[in-house]
Write a structure and sequence with these properties.
Layout: H1 2-12, E1 18-22, E2 39-43
Length: 67
């Protein structure tokens, strides 16, 4: 399903140049409703300064691998 949705989004919006995929699994990870729930986040070149680290940006100090 994830691959199908990714392909559909890319077809609908050619400005998409990448994706982040994330999920919260377990209470410690922030899961509040215990079911399968996956975030497919479309990204575009230049949509944020310094995207290095991707979804690790949610952990303070873990997003910038260049430091």
């Amino acid at each position: 399903m994830l691959k199908q949705r990714k392909t559909a989004l890319e077809t609908q919006d050619p400005s998409i140049t990448g994706f982040n995929v994330g999920m919260n699994s377990g209470t410690s990870a922030g899961q509040t409703v215990f079911h399968c729930h996956i975030h497919l986040i479309p990204r575009r070149d230049g949509d944020m300064e310094g995207p290095t680290g991707g979804v690790r940006q949610v952990i303070p100090g873990k997003g910038n691998y260049k430091n």
